Records
---
Amino acid sequence: MANPDVEEIAAELAESGSHLGPGTQGWIDDAQLAAVSAAAEAADLPVHLVLVVPPEHGDLYFGDDLLVRVHDAGGPDGLYIGVNHLWARNHEDGPPNDPTVRGGELDLALQQWGDVGGSSDLTRDVEHVLSYANGPGEAYPFGEGLVRVVESLAEGTFADLVTAADEGLDVRLAASREEREEGGSGTSTSHATPERDSGDSGSVVTGVVLVLLAVVALAAGVAWVRRRRQTAAPRAFVLPESVLDRVRAAEDAELERRARAEVLALGESIDAAEMSGSGSTAWAAALDHYEAAGRLIPPSGAVDSLDAVGALVLAGRGREALAAARRGRTFSPSRPCFLNPLHGAADGDRTLEHGGGETKAPICRTCRRGLEAGRRPDILDVVVHGRPRHYFETDREPWASTGFGALEVDLVGRVQRGTR
């Protein structure tokens, strides 16, 4: 699939508020799209739809990355709704966890810039409503749910939908607990035990989770695990160690390639910005992040897998800083998901139980929702002395103690000081 033209999409959003790429027209019908547009226009709600079929194999956060790039290319401020992944469904999957389309579920990407309907961040609540507010804790069909969300925002009744989603999630959690109790303890894998957050109404749950998890058999030098949809795990097939070594090497090489490409792209964007000599602190931050990322990926020689992840995080923050500089805004670095910084930005703190203690750390929407549904989170692993370990359990610095910037914001300073 060709890379989407982000400047063309940005222009479409400025004109019509939506972009429907090839193969996505069946996800929302013409009447639903017209209803969304009419409600948004009547209430002056900047809601932007960016529907692009994600690659079948590739970045699990394709949609979030695309939304950021479209906004950076001049897309208007507002609430952006896109798609990270299209999950296939079958009759054994049980109730859907995500908004549905014909033959699958949409793992949504949501980003927001500026105020929408009196809120500076609707992303969590919108996803929550689309996933749990359709009856007793079930997900909406995507088009129908989007109409409900935008019309309720226009009418000022969106808080009622959030309450319905809270109640729906409670129903799902109760059913999940009951199922586990009936099923006994037939698995050695620790389960998540999320609890309702007693804070503001926009919050969903505070996940209290055991992060001592069974290691995936095909753990790579740096690995992420595809979302599990099966109700029962298939019998493991043990690959020869030589095959595992080749898999790890291939995945590490791909991670290095991606890091080099991202850092190179940031450098080219900085060169094209023509802001040299600017006194903007955001511009200075963009330069600092570019320099720090470049330190981690020398032009020759192999790149350590965790350093490649660090370079990706720094390059992403560098793009954020550059976008802020172009718009004359203050730069505040986003915090990546603590469990796996490759997931992108976190959407809130959660208390995680680990090693007999507790750690309060930011995690992303996907990890949070996985914990809510009782799925093991996708944790960034690295091979140490031939065995995969969670990166934060190692002595690899500055990554373990900072969480790649999730726990300590000044990641550039740590890299520049050489505390590795």
---
Amino acid sequence: MVEVFMIELNCRFCGESLQPTSIGRIVNGYELFSCPKCESIGVLSEPTPDQVKKIYDELFSVGGYDQHREEFRLIKQGKVPRSPYRHLLLKFIETRLKGRKMLEIGGGIGSFGVYAESRGWDYTDFDVSEAAVNFAHDLGIKSNCFSSANPPSLPSAEYDLVVMWEVIEHVYDVKGYLDEIYRTLKPGGMYLLSTPNYYRTAYQKSDFGILGSPPVHINFFTKKALESILTESGFEKVNVYKRRLYFPTKLSFRESKTIFQRLLALEESPTLIGIARKPQ
């Protein structure tokens, strides 16, 4: 695959007028570049909205997002899919917010929305995949489809909490998304997100996998980079940490060993968690 590169005047992560620097890595035919200021990493060529829609419609309907389809099946059977860490984080957020109006960007088939509504949240989702939105509608979730060409158009000071689980690595105009999220949050509102850690062991071994490579994942973040772009976007009380607590999905020595190593920081955590607040 050959990419056509265009020199950008502004970093699409932090907005600074700096020329991106190649980091000397090519993943799935895409060269990776870094911003000299915020140190975020990504590709320089933007997938078209049609390409993005096709990628995610296929992933949700027949492709590699089989876990999402399994979650949908379980919910339709009246069961709650296991996502204990996200559920714990939401309960933590609830102790710090009085309001209960939530926006999720990239909510997929709606599994987190089902859980949020069960806890009394007024929940709305936006997703670029029509297939995902149709799944969510089937679960009774308020979900809207939008084009990846721009962040969704949102009302000002509307939401108490904005959530993006494993989404920021997919969007091209990161700065535009962060600005829109900041604007749509109420004063004192919070932003909760997760994203793969660029220093995760697999990435350092050049094992990105199909679902972790461009054009699916087009951004890669370190703890420092994520802290930088959140702060540059005006958020305060920015806390980015490496997830250490993992729950076993099956009883195996290999999985148990990996969980133990991550817990003790003997192995780099594969996931970053970010929590930030809009000033009052």
